[in-house]
Amino acid sequence: MGARPNVLLIHCHDLGRYLGCYGVDVETPAIDRLAADGALFENHFVTAPQCTPSRGSLMTGRYPHVNGLMGLAHTHWELDEGEQIISHYLGDAGYETHLFGLQHVSQDTDTLGYDHIHSEGNLYPGVSPSVHQANRARNVSAVVASFLERGGFDDPFFASVGFFECHRVEEKTGRFGFDADHYDADDPDDVRPLPYLPDRRGIRQDLAEMRGMVAAIDDGVGTILTALEEVELIDETLVIFTTEHGLAFPRAKGSCYDAGLEAALVLSYPGVIDGGERYGELLSNVDVLPTILELIDLEVPDDLNGRSVLPLVTDGEYEPHERLFAEMTWHDEYNPVRAVRTERYKYVRNFWQLPQVYLARDVFASEAGREVREAYTAPFRPYEELYDLRATPQEDENVALEPRYQDVRTELSRRLHEWMVETDDPLLEGPIAPGNYDDEIDSWPHE
Question: Quick one: where's region Disordered (predicted)?
């Protein structure tokens, strides 16, 4: 395979697979070109439908309840002591490591092991307008391009590049939108509705605004790819493009339905990964780290929860996943859910009495949320959900109680429980306290 490649990981917020190369009616020429030059994974899912827990899995190769990130970093959740992320592994292997833009894995960036941090306010996208500005794709990609063009770094390098888009922004009215003042929105009448939501004006309006952010992400990717080509590093660089969960819309972000767990994954490394290939195997974002490690010829630790897909893209011996697991524990509130997905079925186990569809705060206060929240937040959800994805791919018909699906329900329930036991899921012991529980207890008055 020759010398170790540079590794450039580009990630963004709340995008799902809303890209032209995934069949969506939106123009994303730069990412489409990256996919044409590399490999696109059609059934890549994440371990959690929310930012920090999913990003933690991407960076550690381990499930949220295994690495400790069961809630958002800015609400006092942190990786367990001793957890290693990509920058640690590659830094120990001699890579020069760089952080550009957002990371949202830890409040203490110094613990993440980067040699160089090129951004300010890189934790949370909703802190202030100045943080929005610094972490927009246009600005982050310009800094990355300048870094590449300036040179002077020691090869090989690892760069984590995080874009703010497509995160919703709180407006003065309290509504959460897609910052339409800074992006060119499309005409709502020209937008294809989301298949898992009703076709209503507010949802179309939000989609039309969001597409301006999608264009900004694509432009940022284009800026970086152009810079790689101009400095003649494109053939020496593994480029990974991904996102951390589904769109910031009802039944997507914050839910363990496919719309919440789906994510783009594109890998490009000329000469090693054949261009234009599309793979339909089930993949999880815990597979990304072991793939990187194997590709650069480092040992893959036994305690990672994922497996490398390098054999899949290089025609080696690859054992596909029979099932994927996902979870949610804390977000704006306690929402303990565990799920297992096979090629045909999705089984969801809810461990708390909650509304039918959980709506994260930014989704609840959006135009799309306003259209559906009365219907989605009134009835309570069942404790078990089972969906036949072949019959109802939008997961809108729960068949958990239907007699003809009882064998499937029993089998997937058993598999989910076994996974929780094997991975020491603390949810088996009862409700999980919030990330700042100890601090809150210490602040209580004591006699």
Answer: 427-447
Burial class (CB in 10 A: 0-12, 13-18, 19+), 445: exposed
Neighbours of 5 (CB within 10 A): 24
Does the bond joining 156 to the residue before it have cis omega, within 30 degrees of 0? yes
Render pLDDT for 26-74 as a digit per residue (tens, 0 to 9).
999 999 999 999 999 999 999 999 999 999 999 999 999 999 999 999 8
The pLDDT value recorded for residue 333 is 92
Query: For residue 121, what pLDDT is reported?
Result: 61
Residues of the chain with pLDDT below 70 are 1-2, 120-132, 437-447
Provide the residue type at 13 as one letter: H
CATH architecture classification, 6-313: 3-Layer(aba) Sandwich (3.40)
- Distance CA(15)–CA(261), nearest Å, equals 11
Write down the pLDDT at residue 127. Answer: 45
323: how many CB neighbours lie within 10 A of its CB?
16
d(CA 13, CA 400): 32
Would 6-313 and 324-428 be classified into the same CATH topology? Answer: no
Cβ atoms of 117 and 99 closer than 8 Å: yes
pLDDT at 402: 98
SS3 328: strand
CA distance 442 to 325: 35
Q: DSSP for 242-308?
A: EESSS-SSTTSTTSSSHHHHB--EEEE-TTTSPTTEEEEEEEEGGGHHHHHHHHTT-PPPTT-SS--
- pLDDT recorded at residue 382: 95
> In 69-94, which positions are buried (b, 16+ CB within 10 angstroms) versus exposed (e)?
bbbbbbebbbbeeebbbbbbbbbeee
Ranges of each domain in the chain: 6-313, 324-428
Half-sphere exposure of 5 (CA within 13 A, CB side): 26
- Residue 436's pLDDT is 75
